[in-house]
Design goal:
With 270 residues, the protein is an alpha/beta fold. Helices cover 40% and strands 14% of the residues. The chain has a domain at 12-186 and 219-227: NADP-dependent oxidoreductase domain (TIM Barrel, Alpha-Beta Barrel), CATH 3.20.20. The two termini are 29 Å apart.
């Protein structure tokens, strides 16, 4: 299951997967079939991704790597330096998908400056695809106006059954921007929700797999994170679960605006 741009719709988040333990978790995921690995300059996992890919024995071409430019690196000179540093840490000559991780807080770096730098990184061959992360509708619209329709391929945001981002989803759909859902399992909360548990029982699946299937049904990319083999394996079930209209309606009704990631630097959300 890939998007029209070739992005695998189910990937693996690598936040927190550092050191040898993180490397082993990534190797387990690769063994099970995960090929979309999501990292960032601020996660400290770019070298772990590099080492896991090398140890897997699988060719680089089989993997889709996403990384993100940190908001402390958005000023133009630092932007390109940081991208080259990411390339070195990842051990690649081109990033499959390069994102701006957060918009510059309070416009400390002018929006046009770092969006133009993002487009230039693609033009220079440093990235195949470009996108944004943690952008509300107003900034997604502004980015698409600046760079042109079709240039921004994704907006990575928190999305799960308890934070469904309906307005942002509609905006991105109109602009042909695919959402990527981080925290798609709401930090584990989906596992204890009685409604999702009931739907999972109907499908002989885990609540996590059902929640991921709901994300995928809505056209988003999902990047759950786990280091446990059983969870990694069960999450793959989401690719084959067919949720009924009743299932979808029940999950849709769980939206309550429950946001987990909301640092002081966050923009004004939809």
């Amino acid at each position: 299951m890939n998007t029209s741009h070739g992005i695998p719709r189910l990937g693996l988040g690598t936040f927190g997967r550092t050191g040898d333990r993180g490397r082993e978790a990534l190797l387990t995921a690769i063994e099970l079939g995960y090929r979309h690995l999501d990292t960032a300059q601020t996660y400290g996992t770019e070298t772990v991704v590099r080492d896991a890919i090398a140890a897997s024995g699988q060719p680089r071409a089989d993997f889709f790597i996403t990384t993100k430019v940190g908001d402390i690196n958005l000023a133009r000179p630092r932007f390109f330096t940081s991208v080259h540093e990411s390339l070195d840490r990842l051990g690649v000559d081109r990033i499959d998908l390069l994102l701006v991780h957060w918009p510059s807080p309070n416009d400390q770096v002018p929006f046009e400056e770092y969006m133009d730098a993002l487009a230039e990184a693609k033009a220079l061959g440093l990235a195949t695809l470009i996108g944004v992360s943690n952008f509300p509708s107003t900034l997604v619209e502004r980015a698409c106006r600046r760079l042109g329709r079709g240039e921004i391929v994704t907006n990575q945001v928190e999305m799960h059954p308890f934070l469904q981002n309906g307005a942002l989803r509609r905006c991105c759909e109109q602009l042909d921007v695919t959402l990527t859902a981080f925290m798609p399992l709401a930090g584990g909360r989906v596992a204890s929700d009685p409604g999702i548990q009931e739907i999972a029982a109907r499908h002989d699946a885990t609540p996590a797999a059902v929640s991921l299937a709901w994300v995928l049904h809505h056209g988003a990319i999902a990047i759950p994170s786990s280091e446990q083999r059983a969870h990694l394996r069960d999450n793959l079930r989401s690719l084959t679960i067919g949720l009924s209209d009743v299932d979808l309606a029940e999950i849709d009704a769980l939206d309550c605006g429950y946001r987990i990631v909301n640092p002081a630097k966050a923009p004004v959300w939809d």
